[in-house]
Amino acid sequence: MHRAPLPRLDGAPDLLAALRPLCRLCPGAVWEDPEGRHRVVCGDATDSVLVHRTFFGEQSHAGLQPGVTGTEAVQHTGLEPLAAASLAIHDPPYNMAVFEVRDITDYLAWCGRWLDAGDAVLGPDASLYLWLGADQKHGFQPLADVILAMRARNWNSRSLITLRNQRGYGTQKNWMAVRQELLYYTRGEPVFCVDAEYTDIPKKVKGYYKQVRGERLENTARGHADTIRAGNVWTDIQQVFYRMEENVEGCYAQKPLAAIERIIRASSSPGDTVIDFFAHSGTTLLACERLGRRCYTMELEPVYCEIAIRRLEHFRTSGKTGWQGGHAFERDGVSIVD
Ligand SMILES: C[S@@+](CC[C@H](N)C(=O)[O-])C[C@H]1O[C@@H](n2cnc3c(N)ncnc32)[C@H](O)[C@@H]1O
User: Residue 113's domain spans which residues?
Assistant: First the structure.
């Protein structure tokens, strides 16, 4: 197999700096999809003015720098206003050891700022999904703290979903850590299309039965489907690794497309606007493209903005969801040898 790896870009500051001139966005700039569906904003999700201005498309863009394609500036002439979003899927940095760790009070204050910015662009009937980690060596922060902090916000708690990874860590002295946590909240009365969410796992575990008109029925006999519903433990989704088509080299925190598509199918309708303030590899952007939703996504790092945009463009031209064996900057002649 042809293989052109990129190292984890968060651990390669020199490479990140070398890639930035190849990116079309600089901080404050907005990429507007030429096909009119999506926007990618390069900026800080805690900047409520930037979030409001770019997500609601007010005509004034004073203070925003234009985006850059190579060396060519792209002028913004004003963006069309959009309807409020109905779904937020946020996957922020987890405040865990391998990433930047801040004091938990600071981390919660930081979360509060981007949650406030998001609240202002979501409609009254909306769903909010938050991916978070729980550091088992440090009191399960930040998951436990965020759950408590969310009680003070205008959202109803709905579910705590676990996505089961196939690979884990810490097998010698503890239970192997294989879970990723996903909090689900709603406000108002957003859609929830549970019927869309059957897995392909056959319904085969027996032993849970009840009497119906004197007849003992196994659980397998009582539902309409041959497979089980997704529930709040997702064991049927493959963690992304380098041999998968959807793999995006250089990204270190890519969520499986199947998980994001499950959320979008269940909690939005075709044509809805979905927001994601931490784009990284652009999984939500791509999932929205595939499912006929609009995506308005932000990302602090111009290189990840570029990767997200190129991933969408690559899908539109090739039908492929990532770069198995290759990477987003190959067309620029960027080549890294192991
Ligand atoms: C966990 S990753 C998101 C992964 C993404 N769900 C995917 O599937 O690729 C978090 C991303 O948030 C970005 N980020 C960190 N702080 C940010 C901020 N204040 N505003 C916007 N993006 C930020 C990081 O650069 C990183 O790319």
Answer: 9-61+82-199+229-332
Q: Is the residue at 54 inside a domain?
A: yes
- Nearest-angstrom CA–CA distance, 7 and 198: 36
304 lines ligand 1 (CB under 6 A): yes
Domain count, the chain: 1
Atom of ligand 1 nearest to the CA of 279: 5
Q: Mean per-residue pLDDT for 90-116?
A: 90
Q: Tell me which of 25, 278, 300 to substitute to probe ligand 1's pocket, judged by most ligand atoms within 8 Å of the beta carbon.
A: 278
- Count CB atoms within 10 A of the CB of residue 261: 19
pLDDT at 64: 37
pLDDT of residue 290: 98
List Cα–Cα distances, 227 to 178, 211, 217, 303, in angstroms.
24, 22, 17, 41
End-to-end CA distance of the chain: 15
The model's pTM: 0.89
Residue 147 within any structural domain of the chain: yes
Q: Tell me the pLDDT tens digit for each residue of 207-260.
A: 667 788 888 887 777 667 778 888 999 999 999 998 999 999 999 999 999 999
Q: What is the mean pLDDT of the chain?
A: 87
pLDDT band at 132 (very low <50, low <70, confident <90, very high): very high
Is 249 near ligand 1, meaning CB less than 6 Å away?
no
Q: What is the CATH number of the domain that holds 127?
A: 3.40.50.150
Cα–Cα distance measured from residue 303 to residue 313, given in angstroms and rounded to the nearest whole number: 15
Choose one of 300, 307, 312 to mutate for the ligand 1 pocket test, by most ligand atoms within 8 angstroms of C-beta: 300
- Can you give the pLDDT at residue 33? 96
The band of 309, judged by pLDDT with boundaries at 50, 70 and 90, is very high
Residue 271, class by beta-carbon neighbours within 10 Å (0-12 exposed, 13-18 middle, 19+ buried)? Answer: exposed
Q: Does any ligand 1 atom lie closer than 6 A to the CB of residue 277? A: yes
- Give domain status of residue 224, yes or no: no
Residue 219 is assigned to a structural domain of this protein: no
